[in-house]
Structures are given as structure tokens and as C-alpha cells.
Amino acid sequence: MRFIGITGGVGSGKSEILKHLAENPRFIVRQADNIAHGLMEKGKPLFYKVIETLGEEVLSPDGDIDRKKMAEKIFKEPLLKEKIDSLIHPAVEDFIREDTVRAAASGNCDIYFLEAALLIECGYGKICEELWYIYADENVRRERLKKGRGYSDERIGLIMKSQLPDSVFRENCAQIIDNSGELDQSIEDLDRLISGYTG
């Protein structure tokens, strides 16, 4: 079983690529964000640690963690963000380590893909065999975010500024999938790349 990390900037079209990969029954596709949300569900150990750190004001009326309230609170206080990251990232990494062991033992998985926007920054690259970079031209990404998510130019600029530059992604990733054009072409390139790993 190969263990490959997938990353890329906002608006690069990772979701469509992951959707395609997930269609293959011999692949497992996990997203660090989804794992984190699952680990923070009401009743889970991480849920109580987050509430202890941020207070009950980040809870929704039904008692779950309200991700929007949580994001607003840690955005205002950088020290809180560090504390929360130090809780979440190790828990996610532990889950991934256990999950990959299960996947390998099952004998049903050829490639285990892990997607995380902060794959490089959070050091997930240390547990993956190699990283793949989903690249898209900045203008294409801006257009996608405006049309698909209704983001303003200002918001897009702030998000992009907070992410790693293209050069760092390229430096850390073994493979680059150019997703600037038509999705069909990107999928074709991706399938060709994968055949070299599974053939």
C-alpha cells in the first residue's frame, strides 16, 4: 500500500480531484479537516479539551462545537489558535497512523490518500511516503473562488496571503498535477500518473 499526501492552495480544485480518486474501490481518501471534525464531535475526548480551552460560548444551541464561532474566536486570539492546533494536529495524526495500519492490514487498499491544506505546515509530510501538489494558476483560482464560493477579492487576497507560496509546494512535493484547465484533462493526467504507481 502506498501512502500519498495531497495538498494545494485554496481554489486549486482539490475537491474534484479527491472525488475522482474516491471512486476507485482500491483507494482510501481521507481529509484531515473531516477527521478533525469527527474527533471533535460531542462526547469525544477532543470535544472536552476544545471546550476547556475555548469555553462554552463556541457551542451551538444543540451542544455541538459551532465551527464558525470557534474560527472567529481563535482568529481574534493567535495564542488560542496555537493551543487548539496543539490539541487537534496530534489527535489527527494518531488517527491517521492507526487508520493506515488498518488499511494496509485489510489488503484491500492500493493507495491511501490524505488531503490537508496544511499538509506541509503541520508536518504530515513526515508520515506520508510522498506529497502531490494540485496546482492551479492564481487567476483561475481567484475566478473559481468568486464564482463557486462568492468570495470578495479582498477575502481571496487574505486567504492566499496566509498560504504557502507556489515555490514551497513545488519544493516539497514529488508530483504536480496541473488543474488550471479543464477537469477532464486533469483527471486524464492524474490517471496516467497513478498507473505508474499501481501498475
Would you kindly provide a brief summary of this structure?
With 199 residues, the protein is an alpha/beta fold. The protein folds into two domains: 1-26 and 110-199, Rossmann fold (3-Layer(aba) Sandwich); 33-109, 3-Layer(aba) Sandwich (Rossmann fold). 56% of the residues lie in helices and 13% in strands.
3D architecture notes:
It is a single chain. This protein has 2 domains: 1-26 and 110-199, Rossmann fold (3-Layer(aba) Sandwich), CATH 3.40.50.300; 33-109, P-loop containing nucleotide triphosphate hydrolases (Rossmann fold, 3-Layer(aba) Sandwich), CATH 3.40.50.300. Helices cover 56% and strands 13% of the residues. It starts with a strand and ends with a helix. The chain has helices spanning 14-22, 32-39, 45-54, 67-76, 78-106, 138-149, 153-162, 166-172, 183-198, and strands at residues 2-7, 27-31, 111-115, 130-135, 175-178.
Which helices and strands appear, and what pairs or packs with what?
Elements: E1 2-7, H1 14-22, E2 27-31, H2 32-39, H3 45-54, H4 67-76, H5 78-106, E3 111-115, E4 130-135, H6 138-149, H7 153-162, H8 166-172, E5 175-178, H9 183-198
Parallel strand pairs: 1-3, 1-4, 2-3, 4-5
Helix pairs in contact: 2-5, 3-5, 4-5
**CATH superfamily annotation of the largest domain:** P-loop containing nucleotide triphosphate hydrolases
State the secondary-structure class: alpha/beta
Strand arrangement within the widest β-sheet reads: 2-3-1-4-5
* Shape, per Cα inertia axes: globular
Instruction: Give the second-level CATH assignment, the architecture of the largest domain.
Output: 3-Layer(aba) Sandwich
CATH topology of the largest domain: Rossmann fold
Distance between the termini: 12 Å
User: Main sheet?
Assistant: 5 strands, parallel
DSSP strand (E) fraction?
A: 5-15%
Give the low-confidence spans.
none
Discrete helix count: 9
Measured as a percent range, the helix fraction is 55-70%
Overall mean confidence score, pLDDT: 93
The CATH class label of the largest domain is Alpha Beta
Counting DSSP E segments of at least 2 residues, the number of strands comes to 5
What is the H/E order?
EHEHHHHEEHHHEH
Rg, Cα atoms, Å: 18 Å
What is the domain tally?
2
